[in-house]
Design a protein that fits this description.
It is a single chain. By secondary structure, the chain is α+β, with helices and mostly antiparallel strands. It has one domain: Ribonuclease Z/Hydroxyacylglutathione hydrolase-like (Metallo-beta-lactamase, Chain A, 4-Layer Sandwich), CATH 3.60.15. About 30% of the residues lie in helices and about 30% in strands. It contains 9 helices and 18 strands. The longest helix is centred in the C-terminal third of the chain and has 15 residues. The termini are far apart.
Length: about 290
């Protein structure tokens, strides 16, 4: 595997990540040339992401919560918008599409075929595992039910845009899916490889880490990450991207076999089974009421 060079530029409204070289990830292999990602804060705690391919001829946006921050950044970058990538149908992830269509009438709206009835603007209906291309950007879409029945993630190079399926140190609530589905979806995300970068839909990392510190109290990496995220948020720096490696070390929803977490759940949640789905369900229920 060749070395990945990452240059990070922090600014008030975005984080730009430029990657080059050939990237190999297990089990999926992609070649990415000079891809850029700009993180755009939207609404109260949402993130949308602008993705540029080689040559910056055009861009795609992932989950445009609202249009004006996206359009402002496109104007700043002087790059036209070619496509929207939709991870799921919730309004805080698609609320900007209509306004973007007003500005870009030929915009491609790409999503999961099962969400066609709930995202009426869709123009391209992908199935699980389908490939897609937007200019020089190419990747695959994977169905990851749990948060909703039709949630998906987009895998572009060694970047994974996970919507509300996985968060920094957390995961999405189960609005439509089951605990068993979410466990399988998280496992599928992890299978993309420890070096995969994760771009999630909300800034929940600090609160999630407080929860992780309670249920996984002996985990020093959780405490270290919490201090780092606290410093980042003081300066309005997004905690995205994360990585699968970091989540495996600090995200309790990916650590359901850890004895400390199981012992905590036995004591505080009446856990009877060590089955990973039962452990996940107990964790998710506790997190639902954690403030």
């Amino acid at each position: 595997m060749k070395k990945i060079e990452v240059f990070i530029e922090w600014c008030l409204y975005c984080v730009t990540i430029k990657a080059s070289e050939e990237i190999a990830s297990t089990p999926h292999h992609f070649k990415v040339i000079a891809m850029e990602i700009i993180t755009i804060p939207c609404l109260y705690d949402n993130y949308s992401y602008l993705v540029f391919g080689a040559g910056r001829v055009d861009a795609a946006v992932v989950d445009p919560s609202e249009a004006w921050p996206v359009m402002r950044e496109l104007e700043r970058q002087q790059v036209p918008l070619a496509a929207v990538l939709c991870t799921h149908h919730h309004h805080d992830h698609i609320g900007g599409i209509d306004d973007l269509l007003d500005a870009y009438p030929r915009l491609r709206i790409i999503g999961f075929k099962e969400d066609g009835g709930r995202i009426p603007q869709l123009t391209e209906f992908l199935d699980d595992g389908d490939s897609f291309e937007v200019g020089a950007i190419s990747g695959k879409m994977f169905h990851t039910p749990g948060h909703t029945s039709a949630s998906v993630v987009f895998h572009i190079g060694n970047k994974l845009f996970v919507g509300d399926t996985l968060f920094g140190a957390g995961c999405g609530r189960l609005f439509e899916g089951t605990a068993e589905q979410m466990v399988a979806s998280l496992a599928r995300i992890v299978s993309c490889g420890r070096g995969t970068e994760l771009y999630f839909g909300h800034e929940y990392t600090a609160l999630n880490l407080r929860f992780a510190a309670e249920v996984d109290a002996t985990n020093g990496t959780v405490r270290q990450r919490a201090m780092m995220v606290e410093e980042m948020r003081v300066g309005d720096t997004p905690s995205a991207p994360s990585s699968i490696e970091l989540e495996l070390e600090t995200n309790p929803f990916l650590r359901a076999t850890e004895p400390a977490i199981i012992a905590y759940l036995e004591k505080h949640a009446g856990l009877k089974s060590h089955d990973p789905v039962a452990v996940f369900a107990a964790l998710r229920e506790l997190r639902n009421h954690f403030e």
